[in-house]
Design a protein that fits this description.
The complex is a heterodimer.
Chain A lengths: L1 H23 L2 H27 L6 H17 L5 H23 L4 H21 L1 H4 L14 H7 L4 H25 L1 H11 L1 H6 L4 H24 L11 H14 L4 H22 L6 H22 L3 H16 L1
Chain B lengths: L1 H31 L6 H17 L4 H29 L9 H27 L14 E4 L2 E6 H23 L1 H11 L1 H6 L4 H27 L7 H14 L4 H21 L5 H15 L14
Antiparallel strand pairs in B: 1-2
The chains are: A mainly alpha, B mainly alpha.
Chain lengths: 330, 303
């Protein structure tokens, strides 16, 4: 009970903090923060799956796509309100996650990575197969619409980027709350046991297969909400949920810290803002286009490899270590 | 009939290339216990080097040799610069669980792939380059009959079979091969019996890099060379390993030929768009009924 109250207050503090930042920065950065909040939920889904239960998925983007398409279909065909369609889209992705989990529970390391990778690659084909419903290569366009009038009355004129930020924020805060509870819950101890020693976990009576499946379902639900929000920026289509999305989520998760929620936050901020920061740094050097185009990818690859080799627990763990160190010294 | 034979020959020739990729992946997997997603990035890099050499009007075969050396050098460099330091970190808390020990190096290889691709983009402007084939890729006719295969198909199949046989001989008949198999089986015991396991592992990386470069050069005439041109090859080769079973060398080669034929028949009789769905269907079917691959030996129960 105490933990739930603590986690709730953290989530509320997060909400207020990001809301405040959102009112101070310009439209471009508001849009970027909205994307970071969305990817925060996506990175959380990786931290739950890989960090807590040790299953490596390279196709988290495909689960996001399921959420995105689910949300788009509900909004376009059933004319549901966005506020209903986003939470409902997690059911779609959780169901796909259940199917995938049933297969995944039998697979170990590279076999699971391979299956999820090919799933992500097969996704555009599915979109083309059901062209009439899913819109093929072009995809379906949805957006967050206009901000409600009462909000405009309170806040003044609201740019579309700012509205996107306000739509993503409550879901990010909720995701933070649920993830924080998950990380401290009893089931997460079970997941960790399976991650650290499958045989020992089975010996103390944990049903390994069922545990793996349930983690997959929960992680997919997070990915689904992230996908719905990601699609609501304007388009749900194969190009939006490309394989590079799965990889950048993984990069964010590793850079920030695979096993912490703060790490997911740090990681999503890094993957979204890194190109901007690099652009600022190299601006005075007037490099040629071919260098500037590829530099962000180069730096994020380099950061990923460096993190893995030097500090595989990620930035969050590093900060925690520094903080603890200074406290001991004092 | 003609269509069927075309599909058969294209499938075999592509399957041979996939087999080479799969072989490279299995060599690293058995030596270091990780899937090297950077493998075709190394091959792409060396294909760019080869194409630069050819653009300077130097003989194709010199470029071929340089590409193989470059691929091997990149493989060795990755092992020495990234994988070895990573293995030393096994004390840190995140690497203490076996599942993470498997996952983290794979993620590192994805990072290396990103570095190689963006570096190629920066050096060669990411332009898509054509790449010559050593022999004609046009339809071959013997007498007056047009054959369902090209000279290049035959060249690829013969070359790759020679390489497959040579690799098998190396692994099974030489002392180096014995050392490689021993360190793959049990690193500790191999080291105790005087095998320099670290050097042997680096050798596996070098060999795998060279094989990947050959595979890259063999598909380059069809796909051209660009930073992402070999991604598809990597994914298909990897899927072949997963289908065949990573621990069985010939299993993954067989998996590669199965995939080559499947893709070619889907391409010709169905639609090219369905290729990934086909691959995914085969993969899921294999994973449900044989979770460690078609040719894996029965897995022992731990509990």
């Amino acid at each position: 009970m105490f933990k739930i109250r603590r986690n709730a207050s953290i989530a509320i503090a997060f909400f207020v903090f990001v809301f405040a930042i959102g009112t101070f920065v310009g439209p471009y950065n508001q849009g970027q923060i909205a994307v970071a909040l969305t990817l925060f939920i996506g990175v959380l889904s990786i931290n739950i799956l890989t960090g807590l239960s040790g299953q490596l998925s390279l196709g988290q983007g495909a689960l996001m796509a399921v959420g995105g398409y689910g949300c788009a279909l509900m909004m376009i065909n059933a004319h549901l309100s966005m506020w209903l369609a986003i939470p409902l889209s997690l059911i779609a992705s959780a169901l796909v996650g259940l199917l995938l989990g049933l297969v995944a529970a039998k697979l170990s390391g590279p076999y699971l990575a391979g299956t999820t990778l090919v799933l992500a690659l097969a996704m555009p084909t599915v979109a083309n197969k059901f062209d009439s419903i899913l819109g093929g290569d072009t995809g379906l366009s949805i957006d967050t619409g206009m901000p409600p009038t009462w909000l405009s009355k309170v806040m003044g004129d609201i740019a579309i980027e700012q509205w996107n930020l306000y739509v993503s924020l409550p879901f990010a805060a909720l995701a933070l709350f649920f993830a924080a509870n998950l990380f401290t819950s009893q089931s997460s101890r079970r997941w960790r046991a399976v991650r650290d020693h499958e045989s020992a976990a089975a010996l103390v009576g944990i049903n390994v297969e069922r545990t793996k499946i349930s983690v997959f379902v929960i992680s997919s639900a997070f990915a689904g909400v992230a996908g719905a929000l990601y699609g609501l920026r304007g388009l749900v289509g194969p190009s939006v949920f490309a394989i590079s999305l799965s990889l950048s989520l993984l990069t964010g998760s590793i850079l920030g810290g695979l096993r912490s929620i703060a790490g997911a936050g740090l990681g999503s901020v890094i993957i979204v803002f890194l190109p901007d920061w690099i652009g600022k740094v190299i601006h005075p050097f007037s490099l040629s286009d071919q260098v500037t185009n590829y530099l962000p990818a180069f730096v994020s690859g380099l950061l990923l490899v460096l993190t893995v080799v030097v500090n595989p627990s990620g930035l969050a763990a590093l900060f925690a270590k520094i903080f603890r160190f200074s406290r001991v010294k004092r | 009939m003609q269509t069927f034979l075309t599909a058969l020959f294209t499938g075999t020739s592509h399957g041979a290339i996939y087999a080479l990729v799969a072989l490279g992946l299995v060599l690293v997997w058995r030596g270091a216990g990780l899937i090297n997603f950077a493998q075709m990035g190394q091959a792409m890099f060396s294909a760019y080097i080869a194409s630069t050499i050819i653009n300077h009007h130097i003989n194709y075969w010199w470029a071929f040799i340089v590409a193989i050396i470059a691929g091997g050098a990149l493989g060795g460099a990755i092992d020495v610069l990234v994988i070895r330091p990573l293995k030393k970190k096994s004390g840190s808390s995140i690497l203490s669980s076996p599942s993470m020990r498997d996952a983290i190096p794979v993620i590192a290889s994805l990072g290396i792939l990103g570095i190689l691709q963006s570096a190629a983009g920066m050096i060669w402007a990411g332009e898509e380059r054509g790449f010559p084939a050593p022999v004609s890729t046009l339809g071959l006719s013997i007498g007056k009959r047009a054959m369902p295969f090209t000279r290049f198909d035959i060249f690829v199949i013969v070359l790759i079979w020679l390489i497959l046989i040579a690799t098998t001989l190396l692994l099974n008949k030489t002392s180096v091969g014995l050392a490689m198999r021993a360190s793959a089986l049990n690193m500790e015991v191999a080291r105790l019996s005087g095998i320099r396991t670290r050097s042997i592992r680096t050798l596996g990386w070098i060999l795998s890099g060279s094989l990947a470069s050959v595979a890259g050069l063999m598909v380059a005439p069809a796909t051209n060379v660009s930073p992402n041109s070999l991604d598809l090859l990597m994914i298909i080769g990897f899927t072949a390993c997963v289908i065949g079973g990573l621990n069985s060398l010939w299993g993954s080669v067989t998996g590669a030929f199965i995939l080559g034929l499947t893709i070619s028949f889907i391409n010709i009789y169905d639609a090219p768009g369905d290729v990934f769905l086909g691959i995914f269907a085969i993969l899921i079917a294999v994973m449900i009924f044989r979770p460690s691959g078609l040719f894996a030996k029965g897995k022992a129960r731990n509990v």
